[in-house]
Write a structure and sequence with these properties.
Length: 367
């Protein structure tokens, strides 16, 4: 089974050896076991600031992206959350009492979401948004800066900067992110950066951050070349797999798959494929849409995505239903972690020949 479901790949052996050595060094540093570090370990904060271009004095270490989200949900009554997006923050934001509004980037950047700026958080992911690989650029970045200047609290989830570089957090926005995509949830580290973040997050920081020993181990790993080892191995493999996937679609099937940042991409599904629901008795003629199907007989997103998942699984590919990310159209998410170029090419062949994907329509000159 070729796993494109999002599980991070194992590290190269050299990176694992470096990590193990730096864990040992951190464990032998006595003060880390006894002295609190509420903002986070100084070595880790300095390393993250260097790697991500963040102001070290504004950077606070958290245990995860969810832990970071908890602070904003506690302090603000209204959170405007991009769609599509990573679903893990949704129960945290709603569970902490915030009103959560979902909005596309177009809606969000136009300000079509209501609420008072002083009580509203705008949450976006860039670069390389999960699940579609989208990145804020040009006028979008400028508009984010304008919204922050108008008094909205803007948070940009920069978790995927490891995979596609970091152009700098938009002016006036806070940065948030996690190390989990570098190795898995066992990394158990995240960050938030912005003026006042530490003071605002202090109640959460009293009990949730990982041990200073753990933080120091990561800090030493980054400082002493660990990220460079991952870039040469794990991260380079992601780029190679993505390139092989797009190249194979173009050269063998005539399909120009759009470029995407980071490891995630959406494979659109043909809305005319899959099962259908039985039409309602006595349905009026004007309910028939441009698809030629009565509205009640059109397949649901789940009815389109589940058979497609099963079909790819039967061919040996594990992907994820895009509806879990609140996408607007039926699709499958593929994540190019831990697979080689040859496997990515085989996946491209499967995508191109599938009667369920919308890519074959593009190849035939349709939209």
């Amino acid at each position: 089974m070729i796993d494109l479901s999002g599980s991070p790949a194992p590290w190269p052996e050299e990176a694992t050896r470096l990590w193990a050595d730096r864990v040992g060094r951190a464990a032998r540093q006595t003060d880390l076991w006894t002295v609190p570090a509420p903002r986070g370990d100084e070595v880790l904060r300095a390393a993250l600031a260097t790697q991500l271009g963040l102001p070290e004095e504004q950077l606070t270490i958290t245990s995860s992206l969810r832990a970071t989200a908890l602070t904003y949900a506690r302090r603000f009554g209204h959170v405007v959350l991009e769609r599509p997006t990573y679903p893990g923050v949704v129960p945290v934001l709603a569970g902490a009492g915030a009103q959560v509004t979902r909005a596309s980037w177009d809606e969000l950047l136009k300000g079509a979401f209501g609420g008072e700026p002083w009580d509203t958080v705008l949450w976006l992911t860039s670069p390389g948004r999960n699940p579609d690989g989208r990145t804020l650029r040009g006028q979008e970045r400028a508009r984010v800066a304008e919204l922050a200047a108008e008094g909205h609290r803007v948070v940009v989830n920069e978790t995927y900067a490891w995979f596609c570089g970091h152009a700098g957090t938009p002016a006036g926005a806070d940065s948030a992110g996690t190390l989990h995509k570098l190795r898995g949830v066992g990394a158990r580290l995240g960050w938030m950066a912005g003026p006042g973040c530490f003071e605002e997050a202090f109640p959460e920081l009293l009990g949730t951050p990982p041990s200073p020993v753990w933080q120091r181990a990561w800090g030493l790993f980054f400082r002493d070349g660990g990220l460079e080892l991952l870039r040469e191995g794990l991260l380079a493999e992601v780029d190679a797999a993505k390139a092989a996937f797009r190249d194979r679609l173009a050269s063998a099937h005539g399909i120009d798959f759009p470029a995407f940042d980071g490891p995630n991409a959406l494979i659109p599904l043909d809305p005319r494929a899959g099962g259908t629901r039985a039409p309602t008795t006595g349905q009026p003629e004007d309910s028939v849409a441009t698809t030629g199907q009565p509205e009640d007989s059109r397949p649901t997103t789940e009815q389109l995505e589940e058979p497609a998942l099963a079909a790819f699984h039967e061919e040996g590919f594990k992907v994820v239903a895009a509806r879990h990310f609140d996408t607007e159209q039926p699709a499958l998410r593929a994540t190019f972690f831990g697979i080689g170029a040859a496997e990515a090419g085989r996946f491209a062949d499967a995508v191109a020949r599938s009667p369920r994907t919308a890519l074959r329509l593009r190849c035939q000159g349709h939209t």
